[in-house]
Amino acid sequence: MTRALVQAVRTLLAGAVALCLALPAAHAQPAQPAQPPQPAHSTQAAEAAVRTPQRIVSLVPSLTETVCSLGACSRLVGTDRFANWPPSVLQLPKLGGLDDAQVESIVALRPDLVLAAPSARVVRRLRDLGLTVQVFASDSHADVRRSIDALAATLGDAAAGPRLWAAIERELAAARDRVPPAWRGQRVYFEVSTTPHAAGTGSFIGQTLAGLGLANIVPPALGAFPQLSPEFIVRAQPDVVMAPRREISAMAARPGWAALQALGHDRHCGFDAAGYEMLVRPGPRLGEAAGLIADCLVALESRR
After folding, report:
1. Using one digit for the tens of pLDDT, what is the confidence trace for 38-78?
2. Exposure of 135 by Cβ count < 10 A (0-12 exposed, 13-18 middle, 19+ buried)?
3. At the top level of CATH, which class does the domain 170-302 belong to?
């Protein structure tokens, strides 16, 4: 037998011996009980529970209102300084505003979700610090609806979004039905700041006005919230002026504004601070805000 053949036989025998020695040890291992398969819905529910935020910071008043209207107010751990509805949010830590959000205070609250506006300067920094930030636009009614639906899904109850929007639509329709026929088609100047800026047709406020059957002195081409010259407003001669009550009382003293016939004939809607805040917040109280405008028009019609 050649040396090579002898080596091959030895190698073969060594492998066979090793296999025989291993067999008893393998048989000695206790059998592991089979794990019952986990139902798919149980696994999905557990994953959803992990993802569903439980500590939310909202840096936009309208988003704070949306969270609460979706039944998740108890998950809020902080808001911006302007959030004041529902009253329970007044007790939460206040974390600055759009341009001066308090990053350290936000991080200290250990939120698993931060809600912000697209223009908020703090978004990138918070994300760089590892926080989850959701950004929502709020320029139009469609934006509000998308925000409601998206937040409802994020909060773990997607069906709550359509329910809330349906309730808003019912309120909008009820407000439209209360507008006196004589006021349909009347032209509105809705002031959003004394600079003066107005609510244009493309804004959520302008869409509320249009939904009530009202017209707007602002041409669509000027955008959602354009700055207007006093001369433009006086030339336009709106049929009704809408603004905070304190501003309505001061408008006639502005240079040239005494020529506004709507002011001279008491065709104006002056809203108190709480009502005006609701009107200029694109959130779940859109329908209630429309009701305030309808109330004013009803009152104006009764004084004719």
Report:
1. 444 433 333 344 589 999 999 999 999 999 999 999 999 99
2. middle
3. alpha beta
Phi-psi region of 42 (alpha: psi -120 to 50; beta: other; left: phi over 0): alpha
Give dist(CA 172, CA 105) in Å, integer: 38
Note the pLDDT tens digit of each residue in 259-270: 999 999 999 999
Q: Look at residue 114 and give its three-state secondary structure.
A: strand
Structure tokens that stand for 58 in this block = 């909202």
DSSP code for 267: -
Relative to beta strand 197-198, strand 187-193 is: antiparallel
Q: Hey, what CATH class is 51-156 in?
A: alpha beta
Domain edges within the chain = 51-156, 170-302
Tell me how crowded residue 173 is: count the other CB atoms within 10 A of its CB. 13
Residue of 132, 129, 128, 181 whose CA lies nearest to 154: 132
